[in-house]
Design brief:
Elements: H1 4-19, E1 35-40, E2 46-49, E3 56-59, E4 65-69, H2 70-76, E5 82-85
Antiparallel strand pairs: 1-4, 1-5, 2-3
Length: about 90
């Protein structure tokens, strides 16, 4: 009959070995996906500072769209007067 201590030791070694293996991610084309577009839905204008980059984003008028780096996008999604979009079309300006 096997000992519980041996099985526990074997199991913990397997867990340790599998958790130390690193995944490789190809970041060659990641820059394209690093921007998100936000549209201002408020009535006047709004300035907001990016949490990560420290950039100041100035939405000058209603429906104004600005591309925002991915790092700042999560905090901006919490703003009620901003609406996130997938991509910026060619007609919109920063």
């Amino acid at each position: 009959m096997g000992c519980c201590g041996q099985k526990r030791k074997e199991w913990s070694q397997n867990i340790y070995n599998s958790s130390t293996e690193a995944e490789t991610i190809d970041s060659g084309n990641m820059q394209e996906h690093q921007l998100r577009v936000f549209e201002y839905t408020g009535k006047r204008s709004m300035k907001i500072k990016g949490i990560v980059t420290g950039n100041i984003y100035y939405f000058r008028y209603p429906d104004h769209k600005i591309e925002v780096p991915y790092e700042d996008s999560f905090a901006m999604m919490a703003e009620t007067d901003l609406k996130a979009h997938a991509k910026l079309d060619n007609r919109s300006k920063k």
